[in-house]
TrEMBL record:
<dbReference type="InterPro" id="IPR027417">
    <property type="entry name" value="P-loop_NTPase"/>
</dbReference>
<dbReference type="Pfam" id="PF00406">
    <property type="entry name" value="ADK"/>
</dbReference>
<dbReference type="InterPro" id="IPR006259">
    <property type="entry name" value="Adenyl_kin_sub"/>
</dbReference>
<feature type="domain" description="Adenylate kinase active site lid">
    <location>
        <begin position="128"/>
        <end position="164"/>
    </location>
</feature>
<keyword id="KW-0963">Cytoplasm</keyword>
<feature type="binding site">
    <location>
        <position position="154"/>
    </location>
    <ligand>
        <name>Zn(2+)</name>
    </ligand>
</feature>
<feature type="binding site">
    <location>
        <position position="32"/>
    </location>
    <ligand>
        <name>AMP</name>
    </ligand>
</feature>
<feature type="binding site">
    <location>
        <position position="37"/>
    </location>
    <ligand>
        <name>AMP</name>
    </ligand>
</feature>
<feature type="binding site">
    <location>
        <begin position="58"/>
        <end position="60"/>
    </location>
    <ligand>
        <name>AMP</name>
    </ligand>
</feature>
<keyword id="KW-0547">Nucleotide-binding</keyword>
<dbReference type="InterPro" id="IPR007862">
    <property type="entry name" value="Adenylate_kinase_lid-dom"/>
</dbReference>
<feature type="binding site">
    <location>
        <position position="201"/>
    </location>
    <ligand>
        <name>ATP</name>
    </ligand>
</feature>
<dbReference type="InterPro" id="IPR033690">
    <property type="entry name" value="Adenylat_kinase_CS"/>
</dbReference>
<dbReference type="GO" id="GO:0008270">
    <property type="term" value="F:zinc ion binding"/>
</dbReference>
<keyword id="KW-0067">ATP-binding</keyword>
<comment type="pathway">
    <text>Purine metabolism; AMP biosynthesis via salvage pathway; AMP from ADP: step 1/1.</text>
</comment>
<feature type="binding site">
    <location>
        <begin position="137"/>
        <end position="138"/>
    </location>
    <ligand>
        <name>ATP</name>
    </ligand>
</feature>
Length: 218
């Protein structure tokens, strides 16, 4: 059984590592967004309750989210393990999760935090730019044009950057996530559940560390 939470700031590679964990261990990947969508599509009581808040443009209360998590963790596909992604977001939710996992008898075993320097993440996330004429996407570090300021595909010199890729927007997003994640990291460190891995390396090197941590779990 591998019951884990996967944490990391935007751009740290959490999505990539979640896919690799699922492929390797065949466990359920539970992201908050997918969980809400599934429950609403299935028309479960809790799903409809969540929908009423979302349709009104309100945040779903912790109590309703917790019920959804419990409903999801009660499903058979989590019997061999699960990755929680996007929940908990606060220490209050983390305390709720302790009760939930006790109720469904699927205790949390590890919290894996992929660590990357926030400055590096701003570089990673704000380096993308797009050709306005043909839509080709580039990255100033990882995928630059072959000739500076010239699109490889159409030869245009007309590039733009999406609003949410701009450095000041990316920086704010990372700051908000850092502020939210820090108390959770402290919470799970005190519980002895936290494992931090260096996310600045290749995806395979990062996964090797995660795999080592998960291999020790029963």
């Amino acid at each position: 059984m591998k019951n884990i939470i996967l944490m990391g700031l935007p751009g740290a590679g959490k999505g990539t590592q979640a896919e690799m964990i699922v492929d390797n261990y065949q466990i359920a990947h539970i992201s908050t967004g997918d969980m809400f969508r599934e429950a609403m599509a299935e028309g479960t009581q809790v799903g409809l309750e969540a929908k009423s808040f979302i349709d009104a443009g309100n945040l779903v209360p912790d109590e309703v989210t917790a019920k959804l998590v419990e409903e999801r963790l009660s499903k058979a596909d989590t019997n061999d393990g699960y990755i929680l992604d996007g929940f908990p977001r606060t220490t209050v939710q983390a305390e709720m999760l302790e009760s939930i996992t006790a109720n469904v008898n699927k205790p949390l075993q590890k919290v894996i935090n992929i660590e990357v320097d926030p400055k590096l993440l701003v570089e990673r996330l704000s380096g993308r730019f797009i050709c306005r004429d043909c839509g080709a996407t580039y990255h100033k570090i990882f995928n630059p044009t072959k000739v500076e300021n010239t699109c490889d595909r159409c030869g245009s010199h007309n590039f733009y950057q999406r609003e949410d890729d701009k450095p000041e927007v990316v920086k704010k997003r990372i700051e908000v996530n850092l502020e939210m994640n820090t108390p959770l990291i402290d919470f799970y460190r005190e519980k002895g559940l936290l494992i931090s891995v260096d996310g600045t390396r290749s995806r395979d090197e990062v996964f090797a560390d995660i795999n080592e941590a998960l291999s020790s779990l029963n």
